[in-house]
Amino acid sequence: MDKILSDHVKACRSADIICGSNAAFESWFRVEIVPVLLDLKVPRGSIGTNYTYPGSANKADLYARTPEGLVIFELKSFVSGQDAQKKKAFFHQITNLEQLITAPEIAQVIAFATFLGTRN
């Protein structure tokens, strides 16, 4: 699913603008994932934004319920001069995903990040 998602984002007419602007557009990525999921025959009612990680109050950015199990997404846009805590938070989200992938109801976890003008 991750290659299909990457190919879809590259093909979007607005991708060059979104990925080349000095701003974070995580909601754009969330919206653009939905057509990919629909093309993969995931029913609209099986796509949501309210997945809570077990044992915490933290939520994933997006999820899809597939016949194979849940697919959990974390999306992050890193842009120079913006929130310095984002990188730390993203690594925490990655840890959440790593722990989640061992659960039998989870089919896949996907972290999707863009970097613009950032270093380190």
Mean pLDDT: 79
Distance between the termini: 28 Å
Task: Find the structural class using helix and strand composition.
Answer: alpha+beta
Shape annotation: globular
- What is the percent of helical residues? 25-40%
Low-confidence stretches: none
CATH architecture, please?
3-Layer(aba) Sandwich
Widest sheet, order of strands: 1-2-3-4
Radius of gyration: 14 Å
Which assembly state applies to the chains in this document? single chain
- Number of discrete domains: 1
Total of helices:
4
Order of helices and strands: HHHEEEHE
Strand coverage percent = 15-25%
CATH topology: Trna Endonuclease, Chain: A, domain 1
User: Number of DSSP strands?
Assistant: 4
Largest sheet: 4 strands, mixed
The CATH top-level class label? Alpha Beta
Condensed summary:
The protein is of the alpha+beta class and 120 residues long. It has helices at 2-11, 15-19, 26-39, 86-100, and strands at 47-48, 62-66, 69-79, 106-116. The protein has a single domain (2-116), classed as Trna Endonuclease, Chain: A, domain 1, CATH 3.40.1350.
Can you offer a commentary on this structure?
The chain has 120 residues and is α+β, with helices and mostly antiparallel strands. It has one domain (2-116): Trna Endonuclease, Chain: A, domain 1. Helices cover 37% and strands 24% of the residues. The chain has helices at residues 2-11, 15-19, 26-39, 86-100; strands spanning 47-48, 62-66, 69-79, 106-116. A four-stranded mixed beta sheet has the order 1-2-3-4, sandwiched between helices. The longest helix is centred in the C-terminal third of the chain and has 15 residues, at 86-100. The two termini are 28 Å apart.
